[in-house]
């Protein structure tokens, strides 16, 4: 065994303790005693020469170094697990990408196009995890991310997939028919469905129409995801505001309609990014070239 590589058991004990926040829970998961897990972690800290946990009144808290190391070890342990499963199953070796993606973009736009990537690169498996808020690659075992914004995250590289374009008002056909007046006065009386992660979207939409954004318009249910806004609008709960590119299917089928042909121009877009300083695998390069070559339509 190479002397510069820590014992695998110690790495597993550390990763489980970091993930679960407890030596006791880690011991249960690994079928070890609590003292055995504690010893393994202490030996690893001694070998590294830095503390991985802060221990205050029996509370276990990761240090900054411990948090970054845990993310890296978790990624390598996951890869070992996947490689072992593939070999034991007698399958040809493949490649796995772990991507963090904003949820509605994933379900409404990316996943319907993934069969094309699978056809071009059948040996690459793409795993998707929903992430609606920014995160640090140092603290999470993702190979890359697709997120909404107006610039690259610090210490990352990649490319802009495309700008979002227009956000349009959406509602069910029944809701539209029940509100015959869709001028400024009539629109303001409708119940508005809001997206909590874009708290000012409706206000900005009103400003672009040069309409008054009233207290009544600012009220209404708030949801965390666009999929929730779309579902609420389709259920007749009010009029929502959503990117046109993410509701194309619902508009084609008639599940949703645009009650008034007025939109909000959005200059932010969807970015594909991965951390600088980490070698990009062939699979990651293949996915980057594919996703950056896609168009909104």
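-> sequence recovered:
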């Amino acid at each position: 065994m190479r002397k510069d590589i820590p014992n695998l058991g110690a790495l597993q004990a550390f990763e489980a303790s970091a993930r679960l926040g407890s030596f006791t829970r880690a011991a249960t998961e690994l079928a070890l005693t609590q003292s055995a897990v504690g010893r393994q972690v202490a030996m690893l800290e001694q070998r590294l020469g830095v503390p991985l946990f802060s221990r205050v009144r029996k509370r276990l808290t990761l240090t900054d170094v411990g948090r970054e190391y845990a993310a890296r070890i978790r990624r390598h342990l996951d890869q070992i697990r996947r490689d072992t499963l593939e070999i034991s199953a007698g399958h040809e070796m493949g490649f796995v990408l772990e991507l963090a993606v904003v949820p509605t973009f994933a379900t409404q736009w990316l996943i319907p196009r993934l069969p094309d990537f699978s056809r071009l690169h059948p040996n690459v498996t793409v795993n998707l995890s929903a992430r609606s808020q920014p995160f640090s690659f140092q603290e999470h075992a993702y190979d890359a991310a697709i997120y909404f914004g107006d610039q690259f995250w610090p210490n990352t590289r990649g490319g802009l997939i495309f700008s979002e374009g227009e956000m349009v008002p959406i509602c069910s056909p029944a809701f539209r028919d029940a509100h015959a007046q869709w001028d400024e006065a009539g629109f303001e009386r409708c119940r508005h469905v809001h997206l909590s992660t874009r708290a000012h979207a409706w206000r900005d939409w009103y400003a672009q129409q040069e309409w008054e954004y009233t207290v009544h318009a600012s009220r209404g249910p708030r949801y965390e995801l666009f999929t929730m806004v779309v579902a609420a609008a389709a259920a007749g709960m009010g009029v929502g505001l959503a990117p046109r590119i993410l509701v194309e299917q619902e508009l084609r089928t008639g599940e949703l309609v645009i009650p008034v042909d007025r939109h909000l121009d959005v200059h932010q877009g969807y970015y594909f990014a991965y951390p600088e300083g980490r070698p990009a695998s062939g699979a990651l390069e293949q996915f980057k070239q594919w996703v950056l070559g896609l168009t909104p339509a």
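The chain is about 45% helix and 20% strand.
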